[in-house]
Batch of 2 targets.
Target 1
Amino acid sequence: MALIHSLLAPGELAQQVGANARATRLAQNLSRRTLAQMAGVSESTIKRFESHGQITLEGLVLIATALGATGQIAELFKHEHPVSLEEIKRTGRTRGRK
């Protein structure tokens, strides 16, 4: 199985997610304190997430909920089912007996 690499390192990707959360918070005209109260996390958790991308999954879900972004979290690992015969032929057999 080949590994697929992102253009961003994991740390860089986490920082980008934190920066996106900050931009969303500011677009909604929320302070860190207000968002922390809405999400039920500490203000320092939000600061650490926005500046370094470091957060627990539970904290991420709480912040996403407060910012109205739960749909994006729910779609994170959603498996897309093929919709055409051509897509099925391209994917091939990956599991099971031959």
Target 2
Amino acid sequence: MPKKSPNEASPVAHFEQSLDELEQLVEKMEAGDLSLEQSLAAYERGVGLYRQCQQALEQAELRVRLLTDPAQPEKSEPFDSVGNDD
């Protein structure tokens, strides 16, 4: 299997960086100092970062499932959703 170059790292590897950037964007938008055009661009970038983070979390969950039961990852129990305090 060919090795990935550092530029082709999995989304899991960039999760922290994407999350930090997303938090910075939110702070800028909440400050209210951006123009409408800048706010729209920041919002678009934020949506992209959110999707990257979500994908990274899904891949991390899959990796954990594979490590837990490599023979039958589909039978492993899903993690509880955040905020699902029944």
